[in-house]
Design a protein that fits this description.
Helix content is about 45%, strand content about 20%. It has about 120 residues and is α+β, with helices and mostly antiparallel strands. It has one domain: Aspartate Aminotransferase, domain 1, CATH 3.90.1150. It has a 5-stranded antiparallel β-sheet. The longest helix has 17 residues. The chain is globular and about 40 Å long.
């Protein structure tokens, strides 16, 4: 088991489903990224931190950094998702916006690969 498996084992229901879905998207679009635990959160690393995911009481936080949030800021607002400078809240009672997450991950992979 990996450290992310250990983290995910602490959750069930919609929190776990959201985190499993996010993990699947991230690993599909960033196959060279490594999994780690950073700041107590599941983290994917690719030439540094790629993206973090963390469970909260009513949502799963997706942490793509400020540039990632800026990329989809208007669409997040239009769809009624809460966000801040570097974090997006994905409520566990709503479907994950897969298209936005895929764009974010693809964008972040390109950013991180440019650092290599």
């Amino acid at each position: 088991m990996t450290v992310i498996d250990d983290y995910l084992a602490e959750y069930s229901g919609p929190h776990r489903e959201h985190m499993d879905a996010l993990r699947a998207i991230i690993t599909r679009l960033a196959p060279d990224a490594t999994e780690a635990l950073s700041w107590g959160m599941p983290t994917w690393k690719l030439n540094g931190n790629l993206i973090h995911v963390a469970a909260a009481k009513h949502h799963v936080g997706l942490h793509p950094g400020a540039d990632g949030v800026a990329l989809v800021r208007e669409e997040l607002a239009e769809r009624g998702f809460s966000f801040s400078k570097g974090t997006i809240q994905l409520p566990v009672d709503r479907p994950i916006p897969v298209d936005l997450v895929e764009r974010l991950v693809t964008f972040r992979v390109a950013q991180q690969e440019a650092k290599a």
